[in-house]
Design brief:
Elements (H helix, E strand, L loop, with lengths): L7 E2 L24 E7 L4 E8 L10 H5 L2 E3 L2 E5 L5 E4 L1 H14 L7 H14 L11 E10 L12 E10 L7 E5 L17 H4 L3 H9 L4 E3 L11 E2 L2 E7 L2 E5 L9 H12 L4 E4 L3 H10 L2 E8 L3 E10 L2 E4 L8 H14 L9 E3 L1
Bound molecules: pyridoxal-5'-phosphate (PLP).
Length: about 350
């Protein structure tokens, strides 16, 4: 095991922080000054360091490039009034990263190493966590094959890294989603439950086709019959029908979202009637038509909650109840925002303070 306190730090002598305008942050454009790197040589983790954010040197034969031997996570940190940084549910991300690692024949990242990577990097780039209401720092841990070997086999050497970027107040616009009845994101026995690069590349083309038809995103259905709703883009989906909160139950074709889990935890805590089960496309279409569907929304780290205002089904655009009149999703959003910002008691122990 790595001596995790032995992290070599090289400070960035040319900070870009002056380029950060908290009033207008464009997602993914500007990265914080430093990156965390550690190497796995087939036996142990070594040479942990924090260095200036910079391009990588990697073998042109790396299976990360050729075969998508690469996994990632996404989480956020919030600046509290006290100046401390609150990271939201990081324990869930390391659990999921290591689940993805197993599926991709990669070594697990030791928890202690993971927490050290967050602590050291965020402490050094503390000023990059914006303080303005609704803003946050997006954290991207990732692990990829560092082999210099082009054959298809389990890799031996790996690199685990963390980069971060400030994100603006994401008051997400309501989205129009299209029920996908041809393309497939995940199938049973596949890798849909993992955040591995190879799940995301192929989803861009069908999403682009839907965009050309005026949709913001796809609502993926099961890969066998296109009969059941799975999830949307990088969000899980939830429906409120007759006062019940309904969401597709997890399996190996659905990403186990941390926002999903947080929303379900709140809902149960509030005594809501929660159903995790298979959700048929036909059921949702019928509920929209009969007026029993009250709300539909996506849940994920990027937007936290995104209202769905319309659903495309075959050649029809089904309009959902007015977003301004919804009550359930806004309550989840407000509660989660308040917990993250430290305005509400963190009764579930979701924040890690740095
Ligand atoms: C990341 C992701 C989600 C949402 O997960 P969170 O942990 O809530 O951010 C949902 N679906 C897919 C496909 C994802 O990649």
């Amino acid at each position: 095991m790595l001596d995790t306190k032995n992290i070599h730090i090289t400070r960035n002598s040319e900070s870009k922080i002056a380029q950060l305008n908290p009033d207008n942050i464009e997602f993914g454009k500007l990265y914080s000054d430093h990156q965390f790197v550690v190497y796995f040589d087939g036996k142990e983790w070594k040479d942990a360091s924090v260095e200036p954010y910079q391009p990588l040197t990697i073998s042109a034969a790396s299976p990360a490039i050729h075969y998508g031997i690469s996994i990632f996570e996404g989480l956020k940190a919030y600046k509290h009034d006290s100046g401390k940084i609150a990271v939201f549910r990081p324990d869930k991300n390391i659990e999921r990263l290591n689940l993805s690692a197993e599926r991709m024949c990669m070594p697990k990242v030791p928890e202690e190493l993971y927490y050290d990577s967050l602590d050291v990097l965020l402490d050094l780039d503390r000023d990059w966590v914006p303080a303005k209401e609704g803003t946050s720092l997006y954290i991207r841990p990732f692990l990829f094959s560092d082999d210099d070997y082009i054959g298809i086999r389990p890799s031996q050497s790996f690199r685990y890294m963390v980069i971060t970027c400030p994100v603006g107040a994401y008051y997400s616009q309501p989205v129009k989603v299209k029920i996908e009845d041809h393309y497939v994101r995940a199938v049973e026995g596949g890798s849909g439950y993992c955040k591995t690069g190879c799940n995301y590349g192929p989803s861009i083309y069908p999403a682009q086709l839907a965009k050309q038809k005026g949709f913001d995103q796809l609502l993926w259905t099961d890969g066998k019959e296109h009969k059941y709703i799975e999830e949307s883009g990088t969000m899980n989906v939830m429906f409120v029908i007759d006062g019940k909160l309904i969401t597709p139950k997890l399996g190996d074709t659905i990403l186990n979202g941390i926002t999903r889990d947080s929303v379900l935890t709140l809902a149960r805590d509030w005594g809501m009637d929660v159903h995790e089960r298979k959700v048929e496309v036909a059921e949702i279409v019928d509920a929209i038509r009969s007026g029993t569907l009250q709300e539909a929304f996506g849940v994920g780290t990027a937007a936290t909650i995104a209202h769905i205002e319309a659903i495309g089904y075959k050649d029809e655009m089904l309009q959902l109840p007015k977003v301004e009149e919804r009550e359930v999703a806004p309550k989840f959003l407000k509660t989660l925002d308040d917990i993250k910002a430290g305005r509400t008691e963190d009764k579930f122990g979701w924040l890690r303070m740095i």
